[in-house]
Every structure is written in structure tokens, then in C-alpha cells.
Write a structure and sequence with these properties.
The chain is an alpha/beta fold. 28% of the residues lie in helices and 28% in strands. It has ten helices and 18 strands. The longest helix has 15 residues. Bound molecules: flavin-adenine dinucleotide (FAD).
Length: 346
């Protein structure tokens, strides 16, 4: 091993984990990503990538592909739930790119994931690798997987999401608080709307106590996404899950008085997923020895500012810089520098 090539294990092959893997591999480190899923599924969800996130994706090499496939909205508008009156308009097309030096794009989450994965050298991401235990030592950490294998590494990055086992092993079980609200979301082919279409602009429909965001996730406007936020009884609260299904009838009922464009979307969508919106306090620390947390594992957010994945991408960029030209002796100091840089912003 040279003084700059570290053996780095990343647990979790989500947006944050894969982005960190690409950037750390670009720096010459020997990286392995361990992902519990057996395949990367195309779950029904769109995602907004703001210019800060796009700058990291540019460094990863994913920008040209995303520009081709993603939807670029000229504006983000707010509309009244019933009358449809526009109450606010934010220029997020060419103007925002000129101002911040990167575009603001809307895409399918799976297309974003695939674009990052395409930048990763083959063989680095390992599927069917569920972490069941982690032990830190003065020289790194040992990971135990459910297939019985143990892997040691100089550095371990816990990018294992909102239910992070690595965070739990570092800080104990957490006690998230239910906000009293849930998000329903899905993507579906625009053709299911028949002759009806959504306005080709990212639109937030504001009701008195609930709202819905609707946008296209593809450049050719053939796939629609929406995500809601609305109050719902605490009777139903399961851990956040990308696969938990919601009841379409309950959703349609909740938005019954909304504008005809919202009704058209809800009529056309064939199924919907549901996500409990939970709140958490900031963690006391993100680093222990040579183990660091990244993304939702250390700063899960409610989705209102569209910054969860963007923050995970920022984490990946800063982490890779902190671990540049570092020998084994400098790892803990580099990880603490990463935490000190990222924690206040996250
Ligand atoms: P994840 O994407 O959750 O990835 C974690 C990975 O770790 C998963 O693949 C999981 O299978 C794996 N894993 C977990 N445990 C183990 C284990 N024991 N062993 C091995 N692997 C394991 N953010 C934005 O920037 N823009 C948006 O528009 C936006 N919209 C959102 C809308 C909704 C409704 C929600 C809920 C979130 C939204 N977010 C958005 C936030 C964003 O989705 C998350 O912040 C982001 O996905 C976090 O990425 P991550 O890599 O940290 O975690």
C-alpha cells in the first residue's frame, strides 16, 4: 500500500454511498461498496437535483447523461389548491444556471442512481451484502455480513441510510418523532392521463394543511411524478420505506377538493407509495475512530427543501477531499475534518 491508497469499505449503495465510492476511487483509493439489496430496483420516485448537487455530479462525470434524460423546468410555481391561482414563481431554468453555474434538474431517482453507478469502475459495488455487525479497532474496522464473511478495512463509511446499523452501533438506538404527516409519492407514464397533461413546470399545489408537488422526471415529458405532505393519524407509522404501499382511495379522498389538474393526476396514477415523515435531533458526532457516517445515516431530513440527497452528494465531495493524500496515521484526523466541515451545513 502506498501512503495515499487506502482500503475503504462503504456500507450502502444508495446515492451517497455510490457517489463517495466514485470520488474516492478517482483519488486512487481501493474502494468496495456493500449493498444489502439483491438488485437496484426502479422504485416510483422522482428527485430534484439543485445546482449544488449538480456540481458534485459534474465531478463524478454524470452531468452529460443527466442533462440528456432529465426534465429541466423553466420555473417552479406555487398555486392555490382550488382556484389554481399562481402565488409565486421562481425562475429555475437558464437563470438559475447562470447564477449558480450548474443546472437545476428533475429526474427519476433510478436514472440518477444509474448515472452515478455508470461512473463507478466495474466490480466495486457488491450486491446481497447485508451488514450485521461492525467492530472498530485502532487500525480500522471489521465488518460482519449476513453470509458469514468478515471484511477489514482502513476506513469504513456508513452510508447505510436512515435506519443505519453503523450509526446505531456508534450511538445506540434512536427515537425518531412522528411529525403527524405522511408523504405519498409515485411515478407513472404520462400516457395514462389520456388527452390530459400536467403543466410542464414544477408545480406546488398549496392547500390549507397539505400540499402536493408535481413534475415530469424525463426530458421528453413521458413520465409524471408527484409527492404530497398531509396530516395522518399516528395509528399508521412504520419505519420509512421506499417500498411501503399507500391506499389510492385514501389519497384521492385527501385531495378531493383540489384543482382539476390535481384530480387528473390522481385519477391516472395506478399505485402509490407512502413514507412517514419523522423528525430527529442532530447527532452528537458522525465519526468514531476510522468509521464515519454519510448522508441519511447522519442527517436524515424531511423532504421539503429537496436537499437530502444533495447533502449526501456534498458529503461525498468533502469526504473525498479530506481523504486525499492521507496515510493510515492521518485517517481519524481527516474524518474529523470532514465532520467539522459538513455538520454545520447539514
Ligand atoms: P439511501 O438512499 O437510503 O441509501 C442507503 C443504502 O444503504 C440503501 O441502498 C440500503 O439498501 C443500504 N443499506 C442499509 N442498511 C444496510 C446494511 N445493513 N447492509 C448493507 N446495505 C445496507 N433529496 C434530494 O436531494 N432531492 C429531492 O428531491 C428529494 N426528494 C425526496 C422525497 C421524499 C418523499 C423523500 C422521503 C426523500 C427525498 N429526498 C430528496 C431525500 C433523499 O431521498 C435522501 O436524502 C437520499 O436518498 C439519501 O441517500 P443515502 O445514500 O444517504 O441513503
Amino acid at each position: 500500500m502506498t501512503s495515499t491508497s487506502l482500503n475503504i469499505a462503504i456500507v450502502g449503495g444508495g446515492i451517497g454511498g455510490l457517489a463517495a465510492a466514485v470520488l474516492l476511487a478517482q483519488n486512487g483509493h481501493r474502494v468496495r461498496v456493500f449493498e444489502q439489496a439483491s438488485r437496484f430496483a426502479r422504485v416510483g420516485a422522482g428527485i430534484q437535483m439543485t445546482p449544488n448537487a449538480m456540481k458534485v455530479l459534474r465531478r463524478i462525470g454524470a452531468e452529460p447523461a443527466l442533462r440528456k434524460i432529465a426534465f429541466q423546468s423553466p420555473a417552479g410555481i406555487s398555486r392555490e389548491w382550488d382556484s389554481g391561482k399562481i402565488t409565486n414563481e421562481l425562475k429555475i431554468g437558464a437563470e438559475i444556471e447562470e447564477r449558480f453555474g450548474a443546472p437545476y434538474l428533475f429526474m427519476h431517482r433510478a436514472d440518477l442512481h444509474a448515472a452515478i453507478l455508470a461512473a463507478l469502475p466495474v466490480g466495486i459495488a457488491e450486491l446481497n451484502r447485508k451488514l450485521v455487525g461492525v467492530e472498530t479497532s485502532s487500525r480500522g474496522a471489521t465488518l460482519a455480513f449476513d453470509d458469514g464473511e468478515c471484511v477489514t478495512a482502513d476506513v469504513v463509511i456508513g452510508a447505510d441510510g436512515v435506519h443505519s446499523l453503523i450509526r446505531e452501533s456508534m450511538l445506540g438506538p434512536e427515537q425518531p418523532r412522528y411529525t403527524g404527516r405522511v408523504a405519498y409519492r409515485t411515478t407513472f407514464p404520462a400516457a395514462l392521463m389520456g388527452s390530459e397533461r400536467i403543466t410542464p413546470v414544477r408545480t406546488k399545489w398549496w392547500g390549507p394543511d397539505r400540499h402536493m408537488v408535481v413534475y415530469y422526471v424525463t426530458a421528453n415529458q413521458d413520465e409524471v411524478y408527484f409527492v404530497t405532505s398531509q396530516p395522518e393519524d399516528a395509528g399508521w407509522v412504520t419505519p420509512e420505506s421506499w417500498s411501503a404501499k399507500g391506499d389510492l382511495n385514501v389519497l384521492r379522498e385527501a385531495y378531493a377538493g383540489f384543482h382539476p389538474e390535481v384530480q387528473a393526476v390522481l385519477r391516472a396514477c395506478p399505485e402509490v407509495h407512502k413514507w412517514a415523515l419523522l423528525a430527529r435531533d442532530p447527532l452528537p458526532r458522525w465519526v468514531e475512530g476510522n468509521v464515519a457516517l454519510l448522508g441519511d445515516a447522519c442527517h436524515p431530513m424531511t423532504p421539503y427543501m429537496a436537499q437530502g440527497a444533495a447533502s449526501a452528494l456534498e458529503d461525498a465531495a468533502v469526504l473525498s477531499r479530506c481523504l486525499q493524500d492521507i496515510g493510515a496515521d492521518g485517517i481519524n484526523a481527516a474524518l474529523r475534518r470532514y465532520e467539522a466541515t459538513r455538520k454545520p451545513r447539514a
